[in-house]
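Input (structure):
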């Protein structure tokens, strides 16, 4: 991997756009799971007898969602470090 050319504002914007793509699927899936998990935890009070199961499913969704978000951060950081490393 070669170091990005950050000599002007347009190239910096292009590199930022490139970084936004890294880990995007994990980030979006994690965000969706976090939202669904929060809704499930909130709705557990209205679920009657299934409330505890809905609540645990919500907590599981929150945990997996945050794990995916952290994985996306890790992937982006690793990609950025690899790109910024001097080759030669």
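Output (sequence):
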């Amino acid at each position: 991997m070669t170091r990005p050319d950050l000599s002007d504002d347009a190239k910096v914007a292009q590199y930022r756009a490139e970084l936004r793509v890294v880990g995007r699927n994990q980030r979006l899936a994690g965000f969706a799971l976090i939202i669904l998990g929060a809704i499930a935890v909130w709705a557990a009070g209205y679920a009657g007898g299934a409330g505890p199961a809905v609540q645990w499913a919500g907590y599981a969704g929150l945990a997996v969602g945050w794990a995916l978000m952290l994985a996306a951060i890790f992937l982006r950081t690793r990609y950025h470090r690899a790109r910024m490393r001097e080759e030669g």
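Notes: The mean pLDDT is 93. Helices lie at 9-21, 24-43, 51-84.
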